[in-house]
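Worked example 3. Consider a protein that binds 4'-deoxy-4'-aminopyridoxal-5'-phosphate.
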Amino acid sequence: MKDLRTALEQRRRDGLYRSRRLAESPQRPERRIDGRDCLSFCSNDYLGLAAHPQVVAALQTGAQRWGAGSGAAHLLAGHTAAHHALEEELADFVGAPRALLFSTGYMANLGVMAALPRRAGRLFQDRLNHASLLDGARISGARLVRYAHLDMQDLQRRLAMAPAGERLIASDGVFSMDGDCAPVEALAALATEHAAGLLLDDAHGLGVLGPQGRGTLAQAGLTPDADIMLMGTLGKALGTFGAFVAGSEALIETLIQQARSYVYTTAPPAAVAEATRAALQLCRDENWRREHLQSLVARFRAGAAELDLVLMESSTPIQPLLIGETRAATRMSEALEAAGILVPAIRPPTVPEGEARLRISFSAAHTQADVDRLLEALGSVMRR
Ligand code: PMP
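Given these inputs, the predicted complex is written out as structure tokens:
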């Protein structure tokens, strides 16, 4: 155990130490964090629903009706009419035959991976996929083949080289640290051509992209089917907590039988399901949230170009500013914080060595004036 301390000290020397902040107010752009008021650009609450009065009210009413906890796994009487209604509404939203709730997106990805690819199979993953997809690959026992980020030629080549057997392609829909989007149509075409399944992790696209916020799959004109599975999270644009997998009847029944992260865990509170139903309704009805978000992104990108800031290719609310060196990114994040602006530095191993960045993320709860304040602070920190 002495080694733990040594490793921690080394991590600190390398500028890679992670620490938590203490928030003393709800998830909104203006927040009180670590004892001071600041303007935050570091949440995934893209539609500004996490503290929305209707969502909070649904949570309260839900708790009165269902209590605080679900008390058991879904398969052991933890599955309520609230969970069931939410599953049906989510399936309808993304145009899938069925949807299955999971406690978190991390667990949903582990669940699909553990239930689907056979040990003799091959799992093809974008090199920049989320950690939960990569961890899922280990659990599945299938051979992991990583292809270059967004590179469909590389994927095609690797699929063609693979021996016959079960194949699953998995990709983020929107990449969480880069903000760019997977070429969904090309992925689906390659999956068909090579008789592979496709799992799209739309944690950051759901609610934000496509008609009514139905996500990257819908934006490409596709819906989940026998070969295409969609994983969506509820703790980001929908502002609550949890996740779901949408797909065919047979997929959902298989997950219920075999996804260990579904079978052996407590169902999320039914009150959270009620809150998510309210959030989903707002997401479907209030297009202005997505339009406003797009206008914030456009204003930010135009302002950043004037300041000669190096933004990554992204049209989503995730707008990373590439810095490069880890310590430089940390110093910039600290300087912004001193000016009352919260933007996290993302460092290796979350991103590749030499590609440390500031991950700026926007929410429909931000105003144009918030964007201007951010640009002003970035300009002054860069000049220094
Ligand atoms: N997939 C992606 C692409 C993510 O960014 C995240 C969350 N960071 C997850 C899955 C996990 O979702 P959850 O936070 O609900 O566990």
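Take a moment to read the result before moving on. The chain has two domains: 17-47+287-383, 53-285. The longest helix spans residues 287-306.
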